[in-house]
UniProtKB/TrEMBL annotation:
Chain intervals with Low complexity compositional bias: 240-279
Family annotation (Pfam families): PK_Tyr_Ser-Thr
Keywords: ATP-binding, Kinase, Magnesium, Metal-binding, Nucleotide-binding, Phosphoprotein, Transferase, Tyrosine-protein kinase
InterPro entries cross-referenced by the UniProt entry: Kinase-like_dom_sf, Non-receptor_tyrosine_kinases, Prot_kinase_dom, Ser-Thr/Tyr_kinase_cat_dom, Tyr_kinase_AS, Tyr_kinase_cat_dom
Active site, UniProt feature: 89
Record field: transmembrane: none
Region ranges (Disordered): 222-293
Stated name of the protein: Protein kinase domain-containing protein
Species in which this protein is naturally found: Trichobilharzia regenti
Binding, Mg(2+): 94, 107
Length: 293
């Protein structure tokens, strides 16, 4: 594949995102292609990445807000599902959060508007610990692979941004998943959501729920019905945290995130993590210097 072909493939994916219009999807405003690097103008989301938000704000995040984030992500992905778009890199690091707590799905650098997408080069970017086992085996992606990744996203949300399979290498993770291992449910996660999360991790893709089904199953209870059981869980969780201040729960995270993918791109340069509140747009400079294979 030539450099021109790669450039065209990248622009095709970004152009697709220009047509997206949903409150839980980051809006792509425009693309400047006249020179390198290619400039992408996107909606400015002042709260920054969901991953950082979870880690910084965990002591102030009630379970109700975690449920709302889960529903926002499912709603955004349901929209992409309706558009026959496969994201391929759904994770907390690729979601943004507004000042009022609304989650928006971002980073469509790996997305494709297809029912099935097959990697042309198996050496490409693959976030191992978020990727469905069938995609790792075959390089073929469907929307059901995104459903698997959504299950990992749920786990991230309810662990306040912990690293999945923290102490395992990529190969160990693959081997354990193939043998039937699944991440344990977080303490704060309601039982019904644990069941839904595990359905997202069904070995057979056709047994995983659609995002439309997920969106309909996640319901936000009112404060009165929500409080008794989950608040006790939240209080117990906070008590456990306070008695283990010297353990390894503090996230020294950047290296872990880097090790969680093969040749995965860093999100530290995401312009939407900017602290400026004066601008409503962020210019994402995606340096897509395309090289000959």
């Amino acid at each position: 594949m030539t450099a021109s072909d790669l450039r065209q493939k990248f622009l095709q994916g970004e152009t697709t995102a220009l047509n997206f219009n949903h409150p839980n999807i980051v809006k792509l405003v425009g693309i400047a292609v006249q020179s390198y690097p290619i400039m992408i103008v996107m909606e400015y989301v002042p709260g920054g990445s969901l991953l950082n938000h979870l880690r910084k704000s965990k002591n102030a995040l009630p379970v109700m807000k975690l449920l709302k984030m889960s529903l926002d992500a499912a709603s955004g992905m349901s929209y992409l599902e309706m558009k026959n778009c496969i994201h391929r890199d759904l994770a907390a690091r690729n979601c943004l959060i507004t000042d009022d707590g609304q989650l928006k799905i971002a980073d469509f650098g790996m997305s494709r508007e297809e029912h099935i997408y097959e990697l042309s080069d198996k050496r490409g970017q693959i976030p191992i610990k978020w990727t469905a086992p069938e995609a790792l085996r075959t390089g073929r992606y469907t929307i059901k692979c995104d459903v698997w990744s959504y299950g990992v996203l749920l786990w991230e949300i309810f662990t306040f941004g912990d690293v999945p399979y923290r102490n395992w290498s990529n190969q160990q993770t693959r081997d354990m998943i193939e043998s039937g291992y699944r991440l344990p449910a977080p303490d704060l996660m309601p039982l019904w959501l644990r069941t839904l999360m595990n359905r997202c991790w069904s070995e057979e893709p056709e047994k995983r729920p659609s995002f439309a089904d997920i969106s309909s199953e996640i319901k936000l209870p009112n404060a009165n019905s929500f409080t008794p059981n989950l608040r006790r869980s939240a209080d117990a969780h906070q008590q456990n945290k306070s008695t283990n201040n010297n353990d390894n729960n503090n996230h020294t995270t950047d290296n872990n995130n880097t090790n969680s993918s093969i040749d995965s791109s860093s999100n530290d340069n995401n312009p939407m993590n900017s602290s400026s509140n004066n601008s409503r747009l962020a210019i994402s400079v995606k340096d897509k210097r395309i090289r000959e294979n």
